[in-house]
Amino acid sequence: MILAALWELLCLVTVAKASITVHGQIPIRQTQAPTATAQDTSFTALAAYNDRVLRPPPIPSPPPANMFTVQLQREAANVQGLSMAHVGGAFFGFSLEMSVVNQVLGKNSSLIQVPFLNLMANLQERAGGVLIRMGGNTQEHATHVDFIDHGNAISKAQALLDQTTRTPAVIYTDDLFYIAANISSLVNVKWFLGIPFNDTANWRLAIAERGQTILGDNLLGLQAGNEPDLYLNNGHRQGTYTPYDYHNEVRNLIATMDDNPNIPNNYMLVGPSIEGLWQPQMLNNNYPSNNCFAQFGVGAARDPQEEFPNYLNHNAGINLIAEYLDSTRVAQQAGKPFIMFETNTASCGGFPGLSDSYGAALWAIDYGLQMAYSNFTHALLHVGGLNVYYNPFTAPPTNQSTYNEWTIGAIYYSTLVMAEILGKSNTSQVVDLASNYGNIFTPAYAIYEHGTLSKVALFNYVDDSTPASNLLVSLSVPGGGVPASVKVKYLAADSVSLKNITWAGQTFGGKYEVDGRLKGDLNIVNINCDMGRNVCQIPVAAPGFALVFFGDSETLNIGQSPVTFATTAYTKTMNTVTVDQDILATSNGHSEKDRSQMGSTSKGSNSGAQGLNTFVPVIFVLFSIAIGGVMVFLS
Ligand SMILES: *[C@@H]1O[C@H](CO)[C@@H](O)[C@H](O)[C@H]1NC(C)=O
Ligand SMILES: *[C@@H]1O[C@H](CO)[C@@H](O)[C@H](O)[C@H]1NC(C)=O
Ligand SMILES: *[C@@H]1O[C@H](CO)[C@@H](O)[C@H](O)[C@H]1NC(C)=O
Ligand SMILES: *[C@@H]1O[C@H](CO)[C@@H](O)[C@H](O)[C@H]1NC(C)=O
Ligand SMILES: *[C@@H]1O[C@H](CO)[C@@H](O)[C@H](O)[C@H]1NC(C)=O
Ligand SMILES: *[C@@H]1O[C@H](CO)[C@@H](O)[C@H](O)[C@H]1NC(C)=O
Ligand SMILES: *[C@@H]1O[C@H](CO)[C@@H](O)[C@H](O)[C@H]1NC(C)=O
User: Fold this and answer.
1) Looking at ligand 2, which residue's alpha carbon is closest to its atom 6?
2) 254 with 280: CB under 8 angstroms?
3) What's 414's domain CATH number?
4) What is d(CA 413, CA 355) in angstroms, rounded to the nearest whole number?
5) 399 alpha carbon to ligand 6 midpoint, in Å?
6) Is 427 in the pocket of ligand 1 (CB under 6 A)?
7) What's the predicted TM-score (pTM) here?
8) Which domain holds residue 117?
């Protein structure tokens, strides 16, 4: 708390000219050579393709009432606690570790991944655009070079091995930015990049110089360092390193950028994802979980089967963000966006059978709506390599690229549904309806657009193979009255455990079948309402999710985006991955070895002690920063 107060004094002295508030949730860490964990079967078996199916949790006891009424207001003005109006672009975006860029986006600017473009086009069709952050742990040592062999935009450089993390540094050419620029010219993707902070005496600002020059308005912000509060523990800094030191480094960065004629715009620094070390109260955080033991032998073993029920109720999202409510308020007052910079089901790659399940899709939509209700402006879902379970989408392994296509994860369906829920009017407001007397298994939200009731989102987390737990939700609009009929789109699967999901009857296809386009017929269900009794009765399966449209919404009739990118021209060549699997395995935002070091080794030292034990879970502190001063939002 004292530190927090000092921070505030230190930082709030100047007014931020332009800033974006961020915080992340999934640690991006590693301290050990990948080989030490390479024998882990989760790597060789390619987690992204795991087939594990968990047992659905039992029906809650007592079960939620399966018929209940939700009283809605027609006018937003009459709704208490409604969120602020949502800003442009999709609420959910993606966080992409630099080392997987070539795998996911493309080898170089002339070989962009077509399935990726189609997936972005589908989000754009609904939400108008997509935010993507390229960065993370691997941004710290990333180094710009003029040329890389074989037409690659990005590669690793063993010679630049980081002595602390033993990570080969990522090297990249201008073509990295051309990849991004080319993507932005085809679909409305806006980018965040990260400035390397490993060497603040010799700033490497190519990412600002070249990134701004090449990306122009498509670059939204530059992240100033990644998790500086862990620098000491990671041996990235020696002696002491406090918020003051970081602040001074940022001041130095700002001055250096100011003096650099090659940086067109100095007003786009973004505060880093900072972990809890500088924020005592942040250590008691509630992020969903981690799978570090299974992936890296760190921390306590966690059984996905036991974790599963924790995701399948409304409290999961509420608890996760409870401590940020003050911060979103401060950010809103300051007129700043407030972005969850990196999140997903669990750190260290997520859980097999859980992170790719229909249950996870329900969890992410509920969590996203809860964040929107709580005045977050965006949340970026993490995308890793082949060794993680939670990917929204996964490009095929290098040597399968000619015969297998992409694989979609449950989380991508959540981003699609969320895009549809909030739409592109920039006026959507969300309220948690605390439906069914607040039963945590049957949450509901109302969405207002242009100040009027637009949609209702209904969840049923209960998994029941009999019809006994199906819901029949009565929606009623006192005063205004219900319309003659409503349209409903369902996100459906037979069980929370399954991976084959449909949205309004359409699917992207199974493992290796995805080209980024929805397949099948769009199925929009018409439900007649009883205007006399002022009620629309909406069935929701157990498990199930229903999006109820009141009146015309521009997202109602959207299925597959009319904008698609043909795969034929590219499929044979485009999937060539050049950053090797070892790097992908440990540098895409899921290794948490540094966490363990916090608990197990003296600060600033990294004596090679790999007997890592205590896993210290932490959440990044959010804050934003701008030229001429720092603005910190502390909770
Ligand atoms: C929504 O906001 C974005 C920028 O935040 C803007 O580009 C877009 O035009 C806005 N859409 C509408 C309908 O105002
Ligand atoms: C991309 O890679 C291909 C194949 O290696 C190469 O032919 C092409 O010249 C490269 N493009 C760029 C912009 O480097
Ligand atoms: C893609 O990038 C290359 C540079 O490698 C550029 O020549 C080309 O015009 C770009 N294409 C588009 C569509 O922007
Ligand atoms: C920072 O990283 C770069 C690239 O890996 C390396 O060349 C440089 O020596 C590093 N600086 C420090 C102080 O570690
Ligand atoms: C979100 O912002 C709105 C508008 O300022 C406010 O009324 C509401 O209380 C906020 N919600 C939360 C959870 O802080
Ligand atoms: C693909 O690469 C993996 C790992 O390098 C290897 O085990 C596998 O046999 C390869 N598959 C094919 C079809 O070449
Ligand atoms: C989903 O997959 C399960 C298990 O593979 C299968 O039994 C079920 O029929 C599938 N459901 C749909 C709707 O395709």
Assistant:
1) 151
2) no
3) 3.20.20.80
4) 12
5) 6
6) no
7) 0.83
8) 67-549
